[in-house]
Design brief:
Layout lengths: L1 E5 L6 H9 L16 E10 L2 H4 L9 E3 L2 E10 L14 H7 L5 E7 L18 H20 L3 H11 L3 H8 L7 H11 L10 H15 L2 E6 L6 H7 L4 E3 L2 H12 L3 E2 L8 E2 L5 H18 L4 H12 L2 E7 L17 E4 L4 H8 L1 H5 L1 E6 L4 E3 L10 E6 L1
Helix pairs in contact: 1-10, 4-8, 6-7, 7-8
Length: about 400
């Protein structure tokens, strides 16, 4: 799974990327700092069962910090997008190509309104950020439309004559974008297009592209620079899928934690000072506490990731074990693995993800919390611990 970090130039995308991945990509206060896409690993935060069961876990595919499990996810920080990127402006074509494999997007928005549409610095509140939200969505819509409409009429007529499903043809055209036939079928239905697809023109194809984007590349807004933004702007745009954020604050807290100055877990609402900071460090930490953590409850970076993973993409975290009593694998590792699965996944799908042979020899499974025996079609819940019994 991959999440793309997107936005216009100079809004803090790379700072967000570095804060989320603990990477060291180049950061600068000018447009197009990121030319080549930065790739790394960021983490979704889930509650680890170790505290609940009173055990000390030793994870293999994730990290546990005092009862909080961090599950790795591939992240890509792409070049900044400017209006008319789909026509090749700025680094537009490169930006859009870098997004092909992303399952969801986190759109970094400068909620302080201190950068214009090209990413140039301006006064706080001078730029209308609603335009940034709108233009990025439109650029992706036009990009998808451009892929769909290549040789459209010939292919549409061929589909009609041969009795082929239009969603199947579209899925083939969009295969590089990781958008399934099922999602395209739903997008067609949601767009309420004319039944005769051979008559779809510019307007219909753009409407279809917009719905495909909403379903196949859902977007989370990270309202960055919230600490310097006018409160009314943050309040206006904040919502379930729009999180007030300070990527600089998260990056500073991570560095302070790495140097042993504070104890801090990504996503926490506070930090604990471990050793006396310098005067400059003390002022910086006090600023973060007052203007970010106390005002918004977190820096917003981890919350943006978690919202994208668990709400936008609808994933759940499941812990498979081989010993339901000790919560271990065959080597004695306690709660060794956690897998992110689509909501509605079944036990047999978990078995397939763990190992194909486990699925082939499946007999039954046990829900560790309830001690109940469950079958292959049993639907998993977020946080489940499952023991799979196989031949």
């Amino acid at each position: 799974m991959q999440i793309g970090i997107v936005g216009k130039p100079n809004v803090g995308k790379t700072t967000f990327f570095n804060a989320a991945t603990h990477a060291n990509a180049e950061i600068a206060n000018y447009p197009f700092t990121t030319i080549e896409a930065n790739q790394g690993v960021m983490y979704a935060r889930v509650k680890c069962p170790c505290k609940e069961f009173g055990v000390k876990c030793n994870p293999r595919n994730s990290i546990c910090m005092d009862g909080i499990r961090y599950v790795p996810i591939e992240a890509i920080d792409v070049a900044g997008l400017v209006p008319k990127a789909h026509l090749g402006r700025g680094l537009g074509n490169k930006f859009l190509d870098d997004l092909r494999k992303a399952d969801a997007l986190i759109h970094i928005v400068d909620v302080s309104g201190s950068t214009d549409e090209e990413g140039r610095a301006c006064g706080i509140g001078e730029h209308d950020i609603s335009m940034d939200i709108k233009f990025l969505e439109e650029e992706i819509d036009y990009w998808i439309k451009g892929i769909i409409e290549r040789d459209w009429h010939r292919l549409a007529n061929k589909c009609k004559i041969e009795g082929e499903k239009i969603e199947r043809m579209l899925a083939e055209k969009l295969t590089g974008l990781k958008i399934s036939e099922e999602k395209i079928k739903y997008a067609i239905k949601k767009a309420e297009l004319p039944e005769d697809f051979t008559k779809w023109g510019e307007e219909e194809l753009l409407k279809l592209a917009s719905n495909i984007r909403q379903i196949g590349k859902p977007i989370m807004l990270s309202l960055n620079k919230a600490d310097i933004a006018p409160p009314e702007l943050v309040k206006k745009f904040a919502g379930e899928f729009a999180i007030p954020t300070s990527a600089e604050a998260e990056l500073a807290l991570n560095k302070a934690a790495e140097h042993g100055i504070i104890y801090y877990r990504p996503g926490d609402s506070d930090f604990k000072i471990l050793k006396e900071p310098t005067e400059a460090q003390k002022k910086g930490l006090e600023y973060i506490k007052k203007h970010v953590l106390q005002r918004y409850g977190s820096t917003g970076v981890q919350q943006s990731i978690d919202k994208a993973v668990f709400d936008l993409l609808g994933l759940i975290a499941v812990f498979p074990v081989e010993d339901e009593h000790k919560l271990t694998d065959k080597d004695g590792n306690v709660l060794p693995d956690v897998f992110l699965m689509p909501s509605g996944s079944t036990v047999i799908e978990l078995a397939e993800k763990v190992h194909s042979e486990l699925a082939e020899g499946f007999i039954r499974a046990v829900d560790v919390r309830t001690k109940k025996i469950v079958g292959a079609d049993h639907k998993l819940k977020h946080g489940d611990i499952i023991h799979i019994i196989a031949r």
